[in-house]
Amino acid sequence: MDSTDNHILKVENVTVGYSKIDILHDVDLLLRKGEIVSIIGPNGAGKSTLLKTIIGLLNPRKGSVYLQNRDITGEKPERLVRQGISYVPQVFNIFPSLTIQENLEMGAFTRTDDFSGRMKEIYELFPVLGERRNQRVGNLSGGQRQMVAMGRALMLDPHVLLLDEPSAGLAPKFVSMIFERIIDINKTGVSLILVEQNAREALNMAHRGYVLATGRNVLDGEAKALLANEEVGRLYLGG
After folding, report:
1. What is the mean pLDDT of the chain?
2. Beta strands in the chain (DSSP E)
3. 66, 97, 142, 150: which could form a disulfide with 10 (CB 3.0–4.6 Å)?
């Protein structure tokens, strides 16, 4: 990888897995400041494993993860959150028994300053959450729950946001809404890594993309070039 790139996060030659089985093999990834990078590939390719490795839930057997040129390999998630990385997993990403307001407050658990201004910004980004701030999250639709999860992750004002399958299981109208909000988040200066089952839409909104298959880098490049690539289209985009 080009060390002169204006990158905020770098994954270099990472091999990682569960127990004695490796899921990722010598995987590389680069996220530049202000970018959306989409990771696509078939089920079981290791896409979610890569996000878990970046956020410290898995410790690589080989390779390194860097945040702003500092080696963060193997650091605990709570330390990485304080350093500006937020993560929205595909499941178990909200507190259903708490209200929207309480979920956002939980997202600010490490802040000791006044975060009311940040909460106001989240409500401006997701107006429906502001309208229902006192409603229990367990009573919301799937799309609204995903907005809560994203809003909670943004409460710490991260530099990097990791999103794992944000549109999974959502009705089409909410899928479009979630994708629009991802673009809005990026416009505020947050760099994003997106794992998404809807590969075509993921590349449409991204600056660059990576294709993973059987835990290895298969292809990477500008998102537009990947969309135009016939092999990528045939194997991963349904056409």
Report:
1. 93
2. 7-18, 21-32, 36-40, 62-67, 70-71, 85-88, 160-164, 191-195, 208-213, 216-222
3. 66
